[in-house]
Amino acid sequence: MLHPNALKAHEIAEALGAVVIPVYRSKKPKYRYWRGLDYARCLTKDLLKLYDDETNIAVVQGEPSSGLISIDFDEAKALKEFLALNPALKDTLTTSAARGANLWFKMQGSYPKLTRLKRGSSIWAEWRSTGAFTVIAGIHEEGMPYTSNEKKPISICLEGIVFPEDVNFKTSKGRTSSEQLNAAPATTPLHTAPCTSALLHNIETPKESESNNGTTKEDEEHSTLLSPALILEQIKTREEALDALKKDNPTLHKLYLKFVDRNFTAMPHQRNAFLTEAVPFLYRAVAPTLILPLVEIFYIVHKPIFHDSLSQHMKEAKALLKGVSQTYWDTVPPDEQKLLQALTEREQNAYRILRDLAMRVTDDSPLRLFFMSADEMGLRLGVPSIQAHCILKGKLAKLGIIEVVKNGVQRAKRQRGIATTYRWNVAPL
Fold first, then answer.
1. Is the pTM above the cut of 0.70?
2. Residues 297 and 210 in one domain
């Protein structure tokens, strides 16, 4: 059985679409090859077995985690100054321990790697990005726990962040040996996002000799921008692809609009980032057999802005799905595993979907209570509603796994349907 910290690491990885690693309280990584990890490999049994009572959970930031970065403020004064300039960013994920805080963001477009934000010769804050990892949960070496406001990271581009006029990005130099564990190369160049450049006066640009492969900042910006012609092509491709899907497979079309189109946006150079977020999400929302078709449709719909081939896209999706499915069982307690094994494959899929819904707490749905209709379950499982009804009320309810709290109302002419309210009865959650 996995240690609770391993289960927590798995939960964090899924919630953030991020690569996580086990680290000692000294912030030294327990896995020396952490730089080469991706989402699927960080959740293998061998890695999860490294977590124990003395292990903290860290996020590998930047590119490996689809643009998840943080700004690390050691001084309360600097944090207060930053939030005064960016009041909307008070609602992003924030973690803290001994002092200061880390504000977490999902970056859109390009952005700097690990670097320091300096005011004159003093360090004002640290930009924790590609090349770094940052502890997000556990116990600080000074003895206090890491805390979180439990909010989601805000998605933002670099130019959407306002810094003080006299604060600049500068490459970190003169690091201590412990800092070198987290450090990117000292020649890390600055990349700017494809948004308005109004704030670029705050950022030091690299010399031409420091740019990658001789490309300039303008070249990098141009590679991420969409031309009007490309946007028009994408509009046409999307319409044609969705119209064909609706004609050939109306059920899959409805499923795509509900779970993919509504929740994910295609961005240049973010195809892999979509997969690392979408596959774990879909694994808890629909039957596994539907996941690959859904991510394939996403590629087809947005093909004009992607450079990798469909075969490469599906190869990565299959590998990620395999990793997610393998590690899911490790998050389930042993007695629940035995229960799941006693169910049919479709019943297992329904169990997983309902279990996830029961764990979510909202104003409309407190812990253990959730809404589900036979039509909705049929859609998620890819089976007729009558079969879904048999799974819900004919099997899971009779076994006591779920309990009907309030029967729903079937959709009729001039009458809106109401889903049945269920209670989850399997302990523990």
1. no
2. no
